[in-house]
Give the backbone structure.
Amino acid sequence: MSKDNKDEKLQMIRHSMAHVMAEAVLQIFPEGKVAIGPAIDNGFYYDFDLPRSLKEDDLEDISQRMQAIIKEGRTFERSVVSRDEALNQFKDQPYKVELIKELPEGEDISVYSQGEFADLCRGPHVEGTNKLNAQSFKLLSIAGAYWRGDEKRPMLQRIYGTAWTNPKDLRMYLQQLEELEKRDHRKVGRELDLFSTHEEAGPGLVYWHPKGARIRVAIEDFWREEHRNNGYEFLFTPHVGKSWLWETSGHLDFYAEGMYPEMVMDKANYYAKPMNCPFHIMIYKTNKHSYRDLPFRWAELGTVYRYEKSGTLHGLMRVRGFTQDDAHIFCTPDQVEDEILEVLRFSLHMLRSFGFTDIQAYLSTMPEKAVGDPAQWTLAEESLRKAIEAEGLEYDVDEGGGAFYGPKIDLKVKDALGRSWQLSTVQFDFNEPERFKMSFTDRDGEEKRPYMIHRALLGSLERFFGVLIEHYGGAFPVWLAPMQIMVIPVAPAFEEYAEKVYSRLKKAGFRVEFDDSDDRMNAKIRNAQAQKIPYMLILGEKEAEAEAVSLRLRNGKQENGIPLEDFVARVEKAVQEKADL
RNA sequence: GCCAGAAUAGCUCAGGGGUAGAGCAACGCUCUCGUAAAGCGUAGGUCGUGAGUUCAAAUCUCACUUCUGGCUCCA
């Protein structure tokens, strides 16, 4: 069977499972209202409006009822009904009635029934429950979900489940979930002592511990070096600014909800910055600029603060204070195409350097409500499209999905577990240059608006760090590892030689530690392993005599009797090449 | 912000209307050791915060805070 066929079959199974679950839930709550229940990646869900809140215990009951229904060997029967018939049949189901009323005139209204339970549904479904396996599904969780995703509509109860063709696939999926849990950056972050957040000090605000900061410094050092190589200048700007900035940029009109509230001082209102751009624009406006000066590529690791709704905060992935690896490019119209191509190349180079090789692009174009001249939009969109194609990237287009101020490319990477993360973004801005009345003097002596491009390659350092932690499961490649080498003497008698090796490695600039605790060697190895340190050096009599080291890698492999200087060269090479080990 | 769940020692967790428990970690002592946990001991908690019920609250109730799973949001 081809992959597509297989996927289609799984979709049908999952969707059918959702119907079976709906029937099971209605057995318990005959007066319950059903909303929608589609198949999703790895499973299905169904939304209900029920007289009471579901509890975890209910899932077991529902599961058993589902198994019973499956074993009854029902068939899924499709029937086509008129609108009136449908309205009549579902008159006790207000959510279905709403859906029926919205179905376009002339379209078939189909109903699938499986014995007692019938559901408005486009289908398709498997022929009968004999195609479902009572042992290869699992109900996973209960969640709240707004009807039609609208926060003004009723909150429904959603049950998520996963379903597969056979119990083995289910087991594999559940194992994958466990793996995900093991790699969770919040868990790894605590185990490796990388970062913390504090209830008393403010939710969504990240504290980078020494070991986490080592990784950040490695990232930032690389980031600066690459920006220097790519023709960027660096800026530093303040963290707060007077309301004038945000009134002018327009953020106070359309983004005030996302900002930390004002601070009043000396009869002026200050705001913590949610964006760096107005600050960069202030620097631009300090001088008059000629077309000969452009382009400017100005980068800043700019820390911004945004009020994210409390329920949306999540570890490092969604926070209230974060540092963007931000840059703004100001250029003339005829520079746009080259600049965009360069930015995209740079972006890909950065992401690949961190081990992300599976990258997809998303192009978002002009929405209905937009500022700026359509000709500008066209030039911008074309430059984005050309760049993506020049780099041979797979891409999707979200027609009309751009922000009102300009089109953009987002890059998403797939991590080691196949999950997608949006990291890079390249966005045109036709709004702020206008509002801040930016200009440059063109060849013909006229004052013209520069093009402005926002771009972030890693997104935010916090989020990027979170993604990195999960991508590597905490086992960072040598160049990023907070502790690269652990020196472990076999016994206290060999501490002198171990000390010597330690000094040599320290001198070479490596992040090396010396475990001189009272633990036995075995315990030291275990501790180093738990910290996912790439290299463990086991040093005893043999090594001391030969000026050598015995190397244990965190993947369990061993190499004994490596001359010390060879090991130094080897680590230098791994760091240089950004290799795993 | 909304729905649901959770909060007990640094960490992982047990317990539960009548003075708080384990393992790991920490600290001290002993052991001097060749590739994933040596042994013994010591210390450590107003049971998230505030209020209420009760003779008595960590336990029951309410509010709040934070976290978790979702929804929404992410111009």
Observations:
- The mean pLDDT of chain A is 94.
- The first helix of chain A runs from residue 3 to 28.
- The radius of gyration of chain A is 29 Å.
